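Troubleshooting log. The previous structure file for this entry was overwritten by mistake, so regenerating from the original sequence record. Sequence copied from the archived sheet and checked twice against the printout by T.R.
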Amino acid sequence: MNSYVNTLVKTAVKLIVSAGIVLGVSGTVQAAQYWNAEQKQWVSYTPSIESANRLARKKFKRKVVSYSTGEKPGTIIVDTDNRYLYHVLEDGKAMRYGIGVGREGFEWSGAERITRKAKWPGWTPPPEMVRREAKKGRKLPSFMPGGPENPMGARALYLGNTIYRIHGTNEDWSIGHAVSSGCIRMFNSDVEHLYDNVKVGAKVVVL
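Regenerated output below.
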């Protein structure tokens, strides 16, 4: 009986986490819930960062998919609602990547061009972000050099003259969620892959 209950519990946790309930828009791992068959009630459960990272990597593993679009091969299409980025290939195919997107109030859409590419980019928080975070009691650095601890991750693709980038992240659990200030974030391994396969000048369409 205990084995059966444990199986139900693990299944429920996996279903809930994969549905995205494990993460809140604040950018921190929050409690999920599972159904306890013995107690006949939902029980709160807080997964570890490592567990959340692992689940995100499994759910959003990059792969080639069939994709119908009027855009030319080489174009990047960001499907904000479904948390996927598509790099358009030949013959009705696209490389699909999981992404994290802007949280409520920071969503945007439109078309831009990649104007610059950078490896292990430094990060200069925009003034409005510095002011916004200061009101929350959080002091941001004026500049953070590139590296594994930098929130920009391993690579960055700069979009037009905007403050937005497609970049990596050291928070894998955030992929699939709306937690950023408008930038499009990817697993570091994915943004490295995309970086190697797109050129400066490539069109980026954000839906």
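The first helix runs from residue 2 to 18. Archived copy saved in two places this time.
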